[in-house]
Predict the structure.
Amino acid sequence: MTISTSLVYLIGLPFAGAAILLLGGRRTDKWGHLLATALSGSSFVVGVYHLIQMVNRPTEMRPISQKLFEWISVGSFNVDAGLLLDQLSICFVLLITGVGTLIHIYSIAYMSEDRDRRRFFAYLNLFIAAMLLLVLGDSYLSLYVGWEGVGLASYLLIGFWNQKPAYATASKKAFVMNRVGDMGLSLAIMIAFATMGTVSFAGVAEQAHHTSEAALTAMGIMLLVAAAGKSAQFPLQAWLGDAMAGPTPVSALIHAATMVTAGVYLITRSNFVFDAAPTAQLLVVIVGAITLIFGALIGTAKDDIKKALAASTMSQIGYMILATGLGPIGYAFAIMHLITHGFFKAGMFLGAGSVMHGMNDEVNMRKYGALRQFMPITFITFGIGYLAILGVPPFAGFYSKDMIIESAFNSGGMQAIFLGSLTLIGAAITAFYMTRVMILTFAGTKRWDEGVEPHESPWLMWFPMAVLAVGSVTSGYLLYHNKALYKWLSPLFEDHGEHEELLKPIVVSALALTMVAIGVSIAVYKYMRENIETVAPVDVSWITKFVRKDLMQDQFNEKFFMRPGQLLTKALVTTEDVVVDGSVRGVARMAIGSGSGLRGLQNGFVRSYAALILVGALTLIAAIWVVVS
């Protein structure tokens, strides 16, 4: 492993931008957005430079590290604050800074009328810096700092318009649910320290072969809890839909390309833990499988365009989590889908923002219709993302999602057919609700309110959408061709040999495209008509009502976690008040009562003192008499 002295610039540039804009205040309003965009772009350039250098080095010399300073030194436990750039982290660095810079450019126009635009860009830079620290840290502790930094930045961005109570509530909900997941990461770090004496990735990887399976299983489960919180996976997925309250560029940055993929990174980075803990690995598969169906079902009933895309994100991250649970056969394909998803989903979120920009911030798709005539660039770029997420060849999702479906079928054992079938069902549901989004937004006849005048967005908004659309077309093939990404990442994962091929790739592709065609056909049949109501019908089946309420996830959390938590808190408060504080107060009352009683004897009257002396003398005489006699 070689040493680099320039990794700090990757994080330092956007962090410096955040510091300048936050500390500079209103004095930086006129040019703050330009500085933030330039620094994010500069970080991307540094990342490209490191990629070129990495490609030109032998495989074993590609990872580079940098020690920043001695962080913790207690007895035999020593942790250095350091950075690690290898084949996995460089993928995330380029995605974070590349897509992040495009979102910065988009935001220049999107937030142009907001008086706090400078603060918004400061938060964007802070988020980029924290996310880079998360993927560049060389230990679980360094990762944890970035992990919490991302949580803080997302809280600030989701609640950016916190003058609206609903937005403030959404940011708090995201923050609290992420903290639940963060407890998992904290406990995983403690387990690593207690059982292995180290928290560095290299140290844990080395010690994993000498650590009990029980300890590794416990650590793996805690890492999964952390991943579920950050990546909105079951059962910690309820925050993602409400997080759409923030400005649309936030949705593209956090909920498409970066933050929600942190859980995928964590599990992939911890491959040495999960490969040695089959039970934890199985739980990863189960969580991913549940979430990909869960999110897809929710997406079928959303009329809010951003919430429909958020449900889609939840489902697609479910595909990635499932793939990581398949072990070495799935790690590279999870990252491939993560990268392609970053392009097409960020593009669609920006497209949703473009639609809102031209529709007076209206988010209800039932009040859209026929926008392809008024917003042709948005229609084309959004449509490319739509074809990519469906997995239509030659668009990016065809390569990445099909590889996950193929890996599920070829995972071996009795689970293979079941998992493969679930991924195909998810593909069909995805095709249905995404076609529904396309039809309600861009097809049919206009259904918007009077006074609304749809129009195309300025070039600063559609240019990033166009670049992302190009990535949505090309990225899948480039990563898939000649197994490019698989070969790039394979040195980081332990090779378990060849896997049994249950279905040929051509068969998997045919099945996936058939399911996509079924989903598209149902959506076209249901929604390609002239009488789409601008208000969702109330007289619907109980299943539709159930799905509209997000499968009752909030109600479940309230009944089984929030209310019992309140009762537990009240019980603890009562116990503390009665037992702990009550004991202290009881001792105090006894002391006060005793003092009050004795104080009555010290009244200052001579006759009282004489009486006491007489009583004492008589008592003494009586005692002597008893002893003598």
In short: The longest strand covers residues 64-74. Residues 571-628 form one domain. The two ends are 99 Å apart (CA to CA).
